Amino acid sequence: MLYFFLSYARGPDDLFVRKFYNDLCSEVRVHAGRSHDDEVGFLDNHNIEPGQHWPQALVNAIAECSCFLALYSPAYFLSRPCGKEWKLFELRSRPSARDDSTPLPGLIPIVWLPPRELPEVARSVHYDLDVQEDDYRRRGLRQLLRLQRMHDAYIDFVSTIAEHIVAAGRTPPPRGFTDLDFEQLESAFHPAKAGPEDSGELPARFGTGQTIHFVVAAPTRAEAEAIERDGDFYGADALHWAPFGPQQPQPLREYAQKVASEFGFESLFTGLDRLADRVKVAQQYNHIVVLLVDPWSAEIAAHRERLLEYDHHRDHVSAMLVVMSAADAQTQAHSARLADLMHDTLGNNERRLDEVMLRRSVLTWPSFEADLAVVLAEARNRLVADGRVYRRPPPGDYAPRPILEGP
Is residue 370 a part of any domain in this protein? Predict the structure, then answer.
């Protein structure tokens, strides 16, 4: 019996999360009277076997678990994969209810790091687990786990959660469907609507830090076929570019957004035509710009012209990743020519960027995620060290400044 599914945003605290998961599994086994080797919980990087398709493994686990533990943090509610996990459990728990205020049976929120604000779907979820520890309420479970002086409080907390899980396991929600496409699910935290990711426009409200502008330089399907390039990797616009298909058919933007959310960043995506605008915005607001490049885009005259024009300007992106998928036979057959084409088109940017922020040939989706994680961590450090510092006044009306007058 799978007692719980632990939903969390990957990031720098992964080791602490795994310790909590292991401790909780041990405590659940004791309270449930299970043997020490029984699998009672699910953690994605713990339970998924090598070679297993991870979205389907998630779907199966959420379909059979008794409890869904949501590890609240700022990064959690920015993460689309976490929002999809929540949505999947929500569909299982109330498949026909449309009232978001209806409690979700089996959903247990745990504050890992207090979020700045909650999305609409989380505001109606019962938040109080009868835990009396003030440090948990103010700073979250992360603090109990990290501080040695809080060890006793942490043990009490794990025991309390285990009791909730075992009690909920006596009346689990009905088993869910396993034939759903995880990749096509809408995130519960990011309702589908026209917005900056669809129109290319910037949101009405955004400010300094915590934002990444991903600019995708890739042809459309029609443009690709016009140069006798395999069109199966492309779609109606650049944001549909899926370089790791057909085995991994998801657009590259989904991998990028997943990594960014694990670092607590909000992601904005646009095509090559808005590259210069995004660089200027990023410089003004201390944002990060990452250029994701399909080398075949330089074969398209209009794309090559934009890239060359940008390359001759002094403003430059924070990082650049050129994807040349190892699973793409046509790209590999032309890899030397495409590398030369990239050098001829973006040579100035290649010289501006160091070896950390420039990845000339990303071959697989795991290496893309790993490379992007390194890039974002370094970019954030550089913003802290070198970013523009200023304060913007809060919105509202202000009285005139007082002026001292003489006697």
Answer: yes
Residues 120 and 215 placed together within one structural domain of the fold? no
Q: What stretches of 140-251 show up as alpha helix (H) in DSSP?
A: 141-146, 151-168, 196-199, 221-226
User: Roughly what angle, to the nearest 10 degrees, separates helices 14-32 and 151-168?
Assistant: 60
The domain total for the chain is: 2
Q: Using CA atoms in the order 168, 78, 292, 272, what is the torsion angle rounded to 10 degrees?
A: 130
Strands (E), 207-287: 211-217, 266-271
Distance CA 84, CA 107 (A): 14
Asked which of 139, 155, 184 is the last residue of a domain, the reply is 184
Judge if 228 and 362 occupy the same domain: yes
pTM passes above 0.85: no
Please tell me which of 133-147, 266-280, 385-399 the model is most confident about, judged by mean pLDDT: 266-280
| Structural domain that includes position 164 | 4-184
Q: What is the DSSP letter of 130?
A: -
Q: Are residues 339 and 277 in the same domain?
A: yes
Residue pLDDT, tens place only, 124-174: 776 556 655 667 777 889 888 888 888 988 999 999 999 999 998 888 777
Measured distance CA(197)–CA(366) in Å, rounded: 24
- Residue position matching structure tokens 């995130």: 187
pLDDT (tens digit per residue) in 222-267: 999 999 999 999 999 999 999 998 777 788 998 898 888 777 788 8
CB 297 within 8 A of CB 226: no
Residue 161, domain CATH: 3.40.50.10140
